[in-house]
Design brief:
This is Nitrate ABC transporter ATP-binding protein. It is built from seven helices and nine strands. The chain has helices at about 45-55, 90-105, 105-120, 135-150, 165-185, 195-200, 235-260; strands at about 5-15, 20-30, 35-40, 60-65, 75-80, 155-160, 185-190, 205, 215-220.
């Protein structure tokens, strides 16, 4: 079976002329069906740009992205952003329903699908609430439920837990881990957090400082299903140290670039 996502020679430049900024690439990355891939790298290296190119939200300046749509009756992909991106004037239930409405799914057919995801993400008792009444963690659950309700083959997640406090972040990691281990859809997960990447991912892709390219890939050796207790093992700590050793110089290069730009 072909790879689910194929990124070939992708580059992205913002602006033109002397003000042009090369944000990404050339980038090559293949992701298998059902694989959970975490992408890490310095701030500004193009991680979010890569995700948006895969999602089709911005076009690449060069190169191409090929997606394998296994069942044309299903939704190919959904995206979860850091800032929740849910509508403040819609209730929790209406926000979760949105993707199904866009697909033209009738209310009778959509109802059990919506209720199932509200139940799985602990939102059933908040179905009539509006986003401004919810905590950050609850709002992000709404965003994930909306993305999952359409049963996408690919789930793209752009630092979805970055805005949460440390405790909420741990809870959301546990919930996402449990959700993914139930149906194992293809996930591309952008994060700054190495601990998070190792816990969640089958593979950790390390990007260089801008313009971002792949400098290394680490296969996460820990069997599934996983639990958060994995963090306490020496093997986990050793892998985190190995990835950080690779990433440290890229972060330093980014800082030097910023200092030169500000000089």
């Amino acid at each position: 079976m072909p790879d689910k996502i194929q990124v070939h020679g992708v580059e992205r430049v913002f602006g033109t002329g002397p003000a042009a900024v090369a944000a990404l690439g050339p980038m090559d990355l293949n992701i298998r069906s059902g694989e959970f891939v975490c992408v890490v790298g310095p701030s500004g290296c193009g991680k979010s740009t890569l995700l948006r190119v895969i999602a089709g939200l911005i076009p690449p300046t060069a190169g191409e992205v090929t997606l394998q749509h296994e069942d044309l009756r299903t939704t190919l992909m959904s995206v979860v952003f850091q800032d929740y991106s849910i509508y403040p004037w819609k209730t929790v239930e209406d926000n979760v329903r949105l993707g199904l409405d866009i697909k033209g799914v009738g209310k009778a057919e959509a109802k059990p699908m919506i209720e199932g995801w509200l139940q799985r993400l602990g939102l059933l008792n908040f179905r009539s609430a509006y986003p401004h009444t919810l905590s950050g963690g609850m709002r992000q659950r709404v965003s994930i439920a909306r993305a999952m309700a359409v049963e996408p083959e690919i789930l793209l997640m752009d630092e979805p837990f970055a805005a949460l406090d440390a405790q909420l972040r741990l809870v959301m990691q546990e919930e996402l881990l449990a959700l993914w281990q139930q149906d194992r859809r293809t996930v591309v997960f952008v994060t700054h957090n190495l601990d998070e990447a190792i816990l969640l991912g089958d593979r950790v892709v390390v990007m260089s400082s801008r313009p971002g390219t792949v400098i290394e890939e680490f296969v996460v050796p820990f069997p599934r299903p996983r639990s958060t207790e994995l963090r306490g093992t020496k093997e986990f700590a050793a892998l985190e140290a190995e990835i950080w050793k690779m990433l440290r110089q890229e972060v330093r290069d980014m800082v030097l670039e910023q200092e030169r730009a500000g000089a």
